[in-house]
TrEMBL record:
InterPro entries listed in its UniProt record: DAO_C, DAO_C_sf, FAD-dep_OxRdtase, FAD/NAD-bd_sf, G3P_DH_FAD-dep
Protein name (database record): Glycerol-3-phosphate dehydrogenase
SUPFAM superfamilies cross-referenced by the UniProt entry: FAD/NAD(P)-binding domain
EC number: 1.1.5.3
Primary gene name: glpD
Cofactor: FAD
Reactions it catalyzes: a quinone + sn-glycerol 3-phosphate = dihydroxyacetone phosphate + a quinol
NCBIfam families per the UniProt record, alphabetical: PRK12266.1, PRK13369.1
Keyword Lipoprotein: no
This protein's record includes keyword Heme: no
Ranges of residues in domain FAD dependent oxidoreductase: 5-357
Keywords noted in UniProt: FAD, Flavoprotein, Oxidoreductase
Family to which the UniProt record says this protein belongs: Belongs to the FAD-dependent glycerol-3-phosphate dehydrogenase family.
Length: 490
């Protein structure tokens, strides 16, 4: 029977982050995830690496400061999938006075050391402007954009490169606390059972964290998770500039409009209480109407439900701090360490946000030091994620153009943005487009599909089209069916 120092339950960004951090410190690690890596909350975010400007109104200065510091770390460590993004906040005096916005932006600029991003500014709007004529002033500031699902995959690869075993589509089906270890039964998607031992168990199950505590280890907790649904819609690009927008609403919430996949705009998020099964969350008609209404109150171009080409919803497992409104619930995290001195410990992760995943993971592993004294020192702050070893995205794209001139530049540019220098692994030994195998459409070839299945744990069409890539937005139904038939056959 295999024995590990650490067994992590949950393959979202927090779970994979903890697995990577621990494995890099010399610990033996196994991570199990009941479905695909990042399939739930971690692939349904607003795709932002940000400090959280609006959290300043809730006096979460420590959280914002930590997130702003992490923003710099992640922009440096994952330049292929995380990029700077300039935001415009249209000024509506009846919603927030200018002095309040300026104060918030001053704090945003100075709560943490800002290295790679320009400071905030106030700008006057002039025609042609995508905004309504009564919006004559915007406030600008910078944050980061991230391909959230790819971030999970890259962190999982980082963990694997350090020796961790990553087991997606594997349930933690039974747990027993023994005298000096955990006895865990893992069940694969095919029903195969595998018993393992672990010195420490980490519950990073996200929306299922409470359920795992109660039904898995039969334990109650003083901390509680509050499930908040966040939904997004994708429409054809409503502004051809490179700016993102943060739109204020009369209910105190904000809505982002973000350039997305070259030809689209990503609009979200909503924040509503959620009570059902996290696996069954779906956008509601009321949420669609809400997002459309907010956007149409700012932009000259009007969008309707018929313009929506894609939508997604996720359930955020937020740490319940007894706030009345879902939008005011903290995005901070908390650990709960349980187990008597003579028992193996259980570390449970409550809350968190994608921007602070690395900091959370480092703190989680630090907390386990007394139980695993042989572990090494923290190391992830200066560790590039796989594929991130290049000087600039433009330089990498130019290198790919010169090295593979026979492949369409739009495909190479996508490779650079998604895989970074791992693009060479996909294109290894290829001398012509014919070497890439079957073409499924929109630049997706068999060679890339094989790579995703072999190295990134993809096993379904959905894994490939919506998480490892975003080609589901670009491929028509016939092309998607062609890929589906290939996946079923292989």
């Amino acid at each position: 029977m295999d024995e590990f120092d650490l067994l992590v339950v949950g393959g979202g960004i927090n779970g994979t982050g903890i697995a990577a951090d621990a494995a890099g410190r010399g610990l033996s690690v196994l991570l199990c995830e009941q479905k695909d890596l990042g399939w739930a909350t971690s692939s349904s975010s607003s795709k932002l690496i940000h400090g959280g400007l609006r959290y300043l109104e809730h006096y979460e200065f420590r959280l914002v400061s930590h997130a702003l510091a992490e923003r710099e770390v992640l922009l440096k460590n994952a330049p292929h999938i995380i990029r700077p993004l300039r935001f415009r906040l249209p000024h509506r005096p009846h919603l927030r006075p200018a002095w309040l916005i300026r104060t918030g932006l001053f704090l945003y600029d100075h709560l943490a050391k800002r290295v790679s991003l320009p400071p905030s500014a106030r700008v006057r709007m002039h025609d042609p402007s995508p905004l309504l004529n009564d919006v004559d002033t915007c406030f600008e500031y910078s944050d980061g954009w991230v391909d959230d699902a790819r971030l999970v995959s890259l962190v999982a690869q980082q963990a694997r490169d350090k020796g961790a075993q990553i087991c997606p589509r594997t349930r933690c089906s039974a747990v027993q606390r023994q005298s000096d270890h955990w006895l865990v039964e893992l069940t694969s998607g095919t029903g195969e059972k595998r018993p393992v031992k672990a010195k420490v168990l980490v519950n990073a199950a996200g929306p299922w964290v409470g359920r795992f505590l109660q039904q898995g280890v039969h334990q109650q907790s003083q901390n509680h998770i509050r499930l908040v649904q966040g939904s997004h819609i994708v429409v054809p690009r409503i502004d051809d500039q490179s700016y993102a927008y943060i739109l204020q609403h009369t209910d105190g919430r904000i809505v982002f409009v973000i350039p997305y996949e070259q030809h689209f705009s990503l609009i979200g998020t909503t924040e509503v209480e959620y009570q059902g099964d996290p696996a069954k969350v779906q956008i509601s008609a009321a949420e669609v109407d809400y997002l459309l209404s907010v956007v149409n109150s700012y932009f000259k171009i009007k969008i309707a439900a018929t313009d929506i080409v894609h939508s997604f919803s996720g359930v955020r497992p937020l740490l319940d701090d007894n706030q009345q409104q879902a939008g005011k619930v903290t995005r901070d995290y908390r650990f709960e360490l349980s187990g008597a001195k003579d028992q193996p410990p259980l570390l449970t992760v409550f809350g968190g946000k994608i921007t602070t995943y690395r900091r959370l993971a480092q703190a989680a592993v630090n907390k386990l030091g007394e139980f695993l004294p042989a572990m090494g020192r923290p190391w992830t702050a200066a560790a590039l994620l796989p594929g991130g070893d290049f000087t600039s995205l433009a330089a990498l794209q130019s290198e790919l153009w010169q090295r593979y001139p026979w492949l369409d530049r739009s495909v190479l540019d996508r490779y650079a943005r998604q895989y970074g220098t791992l693009s060479h692994r996909i294109l290894q030994d290829c001398q012509a487009v014919e070497d890439l195998g079957e073409h499924f459409g929109q630049g997706l070839y068999r060679r890339e599909v094989d790579y995703l299945c072999q190295y990134e744990w993809a096993s379904t069409t959905e894994d490939i089209l919506w998480r490892r890539t975003k080609l589901g937005l670009h491929m028509n139904q016939s092309q998607q069916l062609q890929l589906q038939r290939f996946m079923d056959k292989e």
